[in-house]
């Protein structure tokens, strides 16, 4: 039975470091599903469709990576795609503490394990929200993008 890992929610084409996390995850799992959540409350420079297309284009030559949009609960989507593990990227200690608590909740409520992948040191302090904020004010963020 193949092991499928779901990278859900926080994955964003404007977050540097995620590509290295996916590469590491591919060393551990047979298949990765990158799920782009539909959250209308969060402001974003790109629509869900644009985000899916951007990420899918990056992984177009890797048949082990699938990129999909989803709306609803991560646990429901994990069951839909057959994922047996959730993946979460951690950039700093604050992220780690939050994600560890969330992992406990996911295990208790959904019975699914979470693997926390720590970003490389060069990516530790730049998050997608910071990049989006800089873009909103017309700043050049090309040096921050992968």
Q: Helix and strand succession?
A: EHEHEHEHEH
The average pLDDT score comes to 78
Give me the side-by-side strand order of the main sheet: 3-2-1-4-5
Q: How much of the polypeptide forms β-strand, as a percent range?
A: 15-25%
Q: What name goes with the CATH superfamily?
A: HUPs
Could you say which structural class the secondary elements and strand pairing correspond to?
A: alpha/beta
Tally the beta strands: 5
Helix content: 25-40%
Poorly predicted runs of 5 or more residues: none
Number of separate helices = 5
Number of domains: 1
Q: Give the end-to-end Cα distance, rounded to a whole number of Å.
A: 33 Å
Question: How are the secondary structure elements laid out?
Answer:
Elements: E1 4-8, H1 18-28, E2 31-37, H2 48-58, E3 65-70, H3 74-81, E4 85-90, H4 93-110, E5 113-118, H5 128-136
Parallel strand pairs: 1-2, 1-4, 2-3, 4-5
């Amino acid at each position: 039975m193949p092991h499928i890992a779901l990278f859900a929610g926080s994955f964003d084409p404007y977050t540097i470091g995620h590509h290295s996390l996916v590469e590491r995850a591919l060393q551990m799992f047979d298949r990765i599903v990158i799920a782009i959540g539909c959250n209308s409350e969060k402001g974003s420079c790109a629509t869900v469709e644009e985000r899916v297309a951007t990420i899918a284009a990056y992984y177009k030559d890797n048949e082990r990576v699938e990129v999909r949009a989803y709306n609803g609960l991560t646990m429901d989507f994990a069951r839909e795609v057959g994922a047996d593990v959730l993946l979460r990227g951690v950039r700093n200690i604050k992220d780690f503490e939050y994600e560890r608590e969330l992992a406990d909740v996911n295990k208790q409520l959904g019975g699914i394990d979470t693997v926390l992948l720590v970003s490389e040191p060069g990516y530790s302090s730049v998050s997608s929200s910071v990049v989006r904020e800089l873009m909103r004010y017309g700043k050049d963020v090309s040096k921050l993008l992968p």
